[in-house]
Amino acid sequence: MTVYAYYESPLGKITMEAEEGALTGLWFTRDSEREMTESDSKIFDETKRWLMDYFAGKSPDFMPELRLQGTEFRNIVWNILRTIPYGETVTYGAVASEAARRMGKTRMSAQAAGGAVGHNPICLIIPCHRVIGSDGSLTGYAEGLWRKEALLRLEQTGCI
Asked: Which residues carry out catalysis (predicted)?
Protein backbone atom coordinates (compact mmCIF):
# COMPACT_ATOMS: atom_id res chain seq x y z
CA MET A 1 0.00 0.00 0.00
CA THR A 2 1.29 3.44 -0.90
CA VAL A 3 1.34 5.98 1.93
CA TYR A 4 2.20 9.68 2.02
CA ALA A 5 3.51 12.33 4.38
CA TYR A 6 4.67 15.93 4.04
CA TYR A 7 7.63 18.03 5.12
CA GLU A 8 7.72 21.83 5.21
CA SER A 9 11.11 22.86 3.84
CA PRO A 10 12.58 26.35 3.38
CA LEU A 11 11.96 25.90 -0.36
CA GLY A 12 8.38 24.69 -0.15
CA LYS A 13 6.30 21.74 0.94
CA ILE A 14 7.72 18.31 0.09
CA THR A 15 5.64 15.20 -0.53
CA MET A 16 7.05 11.86 0.61
CA GLU A 17 5.74 8.57 -0.76
CA ALA A 18 6.48 5.10 0.62
CA GLU A 19 5.55 1.49 0.07
CA GLU A 20 6.27 -1.38 2.46
CA GLY A 21 8.63 0.65 4.65
CA ALA A 22 10.79 2.10 1.85
CA LEU A 23 10.77 5.56 0.33
CA THR A 24 9.56 5.46 -3.30
CA GLY A 25 9.03 9.15 -3.99
CA LEU A 26 10.13 12.58 -2.79
CA TRP A 27 9.19 15.79 -4.59
CA PHE A 28 8.27 19.40 -4.03
CA THR A 29 4.49 19.53 -3.82
CA ARG A 30 2.86 21.28 -6.75
CA ASP A 31 0.10 23.83 -6.14
CA SER A 32 -2.29 21.86 -8.35
CA GLU A 33 -1.63 18.60 -6.50
CA ARG A 34 -4.46 17.30 -4.38
CA GLU A 35 -3.70 16.74 -0.70
CA MET A 36 -3.35 13.05 0.18
CA THR A 37 -4.07 11.50 3.54
CA GLU A 38 -0.94 11.51 5.66
CA SER A 39 0.34 8.35 7.26
CA ASP A 40 2.82 7.74 10.05
CA SER A 41 5.73 5.51 9.23
CA LYS A 42 9.27 4.91 10.44
CA ILE A 43 10.55 5.66 6.92
CA PHE A 44 8.92 9.09 7.05
CA ASP A 45 10.56 9.82 10.42
CA GLU A 46 13.94 8.86 8.93
CA THR A 47 13.32 10.91 5.79
CA LYS A 48 12.27 13.96 7.81
CA ARG A 49 15.45 13.63 9.89
CA TRP A 50 17.49 13.41 6.66
CA LEU A 51 15.72 16.52 5.31
CA MET A 52 16.26 18.45 8.56
CA ASP A 53 20.00 17.72 8.42
CA TYR A 54 20.15 18.61 4.74
CA PHE A 55 18.33 21.94 5.07
CA ALA A 56 20.51 22.76 8.10
CA GLY A 57 23.43 22.78 5.64
CA LYS A 58 24.84 19.39 6.62
CA SER A 59 25.56 16.37 4.48
CA PRO A 60 23.38 13.67 6.12
CA ASP A 61 25.45 10.72 7.31
CA PHE A 62 22.70 8.14 6.77
CA MET A 63 20.32 7.11 4.01
CA PRO A 64 16.66 6.21 4.40
CA GLU A 65 15.75 2.92 2.73
CA LEU A 66 14.88 3.61 -0.90
CA ARG A 67 12.94 1.52 -3.41
CA LEU A 68 13.59 2.66 -6.95
CA GLN A 69 11.11 1.58 -9.58
CA GLY A 70 12.40 2.20 -13.07
CA THR A 71 14.04 0.67 -16.09
CA GLU A 72 17.52 -0.82 -15.85
CA PHE A 73 18.93 2.27 -17.58
CA ARG A 74 17.17 4.71 -15.24
CA ASN A 75 18.32 2.74 -12.20
CA ILE A 76 21.91 2.88 -13.45
CA VAL A 77 21.68 6.66 -13.89
CA TRP A 78 19.99 7.15 -10.50
CA ASN A 79 22.73 5.09 -8.83
CA ILE A 80 25.35 7.26 -10.53
CA LEU A 81 23.60 10.34 -9.13
CA ARG A 82 23.85 8.87 -5.64
CA THR A 83 27.66 8.93 -5.96
CA ILE A 84 27.89 12.69 -6.59
CA PRO A 85 29.39 14.14 -3.41
CA TYR A 86 27.57 16.79 -1.41
CA GLY A 87 28.54 20.26 -2.63
CA GLU A 88 29.88 19.05 -5.99
CA THR A 89 28.41 19.00 -9.48
CA VAL A 90 28.88 16.86 -12.59
CA THR A 91 27.73 17.36 -16.17
CA TYR A 92 25.07 15.42 -18.02
CA GLY A 93 27.89 14.28 -20.31
CA ALA A 94 29.83 12.84 -17.38
CA VAL A 95 26.73 10.97 -16.20
CA ALA A 96 26.23 9.63 -19.75
CA SER A 97 29.86 8.48 -19.97
CA GLU A 98 29.64 6.65 -16.66
CA ALA A 99 26.30 5.07 -17.60
CA ALA A 100 27.79 3.87 -20.90
CA ARG A 101 30.78 2.40 -19.05
CA ARG A 102 28.52 0.56 -16.59
CA MET A 103 26.43 -0.79 -19.47
CA GLY A 104 29.45 -1.91 -21.48
CA LYS A 105 28.84 0.61 -24.27
CA THR A 106 31.35 2.91 -25.91
CA ARG A 107 29.22 6.04 -25.59
CA MET A 108 25.82 7.43 -24.71
CA SER A 109 24.25 10.80 -25.36
CA ALA A 110 23.97 13.39 -22.64
CA GLN A 111 20.32 13.81 -23.66
CA ALA A 112 19.59 10.15 -22.87
CA ALA A 113 21.19 10.54 -19.46
CA GLY A 114 19.27 13.80 -18.98
CA GLY A 115 16.01 12.00 -19.65
CA ALA A 116 16.75 9.50 -16.90
CA VAL A 117 17.91 12.27 -14.55
CA GLY A 118 14.63 14.08 -15.21
CA HIS A 119 12.62 11.03 -14.16
CA ASN A 120 14.33 10.72 -10.79
CA PRO A 121 11.50 9.88 -8.35
CA ILE A 122 13.37 10.83 -5.16
CA CYS A 123 14.70 14.37 -5.40
CA LEU A 124 17.35 15.68 -2.97
CA ILE A 125 18.27 12.25 -1.60
CA ILE A 126 19.11 11.16 -5.14
CA PRO A 127 20.76 14.48 -5.98
CA CYS A 128 19.70 15.23 -9.56
CA HIS A 129 20.10 18.94 -8.73
CA ARG A 130 23.89 18.38 -8.81
CA VAL A 131 23.84 17.69 -12.57
CA ILE A 132 24.61 20.70 -14.75
CA GLY A 133 25.14 21.54 -18.41
CA SER A 134 28.55 21.15 -20.05
CA ASP A 135 28.94 24.94 -19.98
CA GLY A 136 28.18 25.10 -16.25
CA SER A 137 24.59 26.22 -16.76
CA LEU A 138 21.83 25.14 -14.42
CA THR A 139 19.61 23.35 -16.90
CA GLY A 140 16.73 20.95 -16.60
CA TYR A 141 15.37 20.73 -13.07
CA ALA A 142 11.74 19.61 -12.77
CA GLU A 143 11.45 21.25 -9.34
CA GLY A 144 12.32 24.67 -10.79
CA LEU A 145 15.68 26.18 -11.66
CA TRP A 146 15.34 28.63 -8.76
CA ARG A 147 15.27 25.64 -6.40
CA LYS A 148 18.25 24.01 -8.11
CA GLU A 149 20.22 27.21 -7.64
CA ALA A 150 19.14 27.47 -3.98
CA LEU A 151 20.06 23.82 -3.29
CA LEU A 152 23.52 24.21 -4.81
CA ARG A 153 24.01 27.44 -2.86
CA LEU A 154 22.96 25.62 0.33
CA GLU A 155 25.48 22.85 -0.29
CA GLN A 156 28.35 25.18 -1.11
CA THR A 157 27.86 27.82 1.60
CA GLY A 158 25.56 26.29 4.19
CA CYS A 159 22.79 28.84 3.70
CA ILE A 160 19.93 29.39 1.29
From this structure: 128
